[in-house]
Amino acid sequence: MDGNSVAAQFVARGEAEVGLTDSDDIAAVNRERGNLRALPLTADMLLIPNTVAVIRNCPHPDSAQQLFAYLQRRAVAEKLVAAGAIEGVSPAEITTPTLQPDWSALLRDLDAATEEMKQIFRR
User: Among the four 9, 27, 52, 88, which has the fewest Cβ within 10 Å?
Assistant: First the structure.
């Protein structure tokens, strides 16, 4: 697939039975056509928190810093939770144990794993 949102759309249209996607993509599809369900979090799932960064020497550092500060506000996190885009306002709210990957090994094996996923899921 070209991305997580495309996978969610394929499942919503009935062109796939399952898709690897994010909670925000499920919420977006459900706002439009409606009936995707996410599997509940388990110890076998990877929970990736939303992130934001300001790039050093960016062309508009003051605007970037303002956006960064805005996105850090609790009210923004609460809106993201309400929209189904994140699982909780803070990591402490998520009590289900999830995978704790070895990021060094993951990066080392990324290309081979990507090719294997393509062989499994791409038609």
Answer: 52
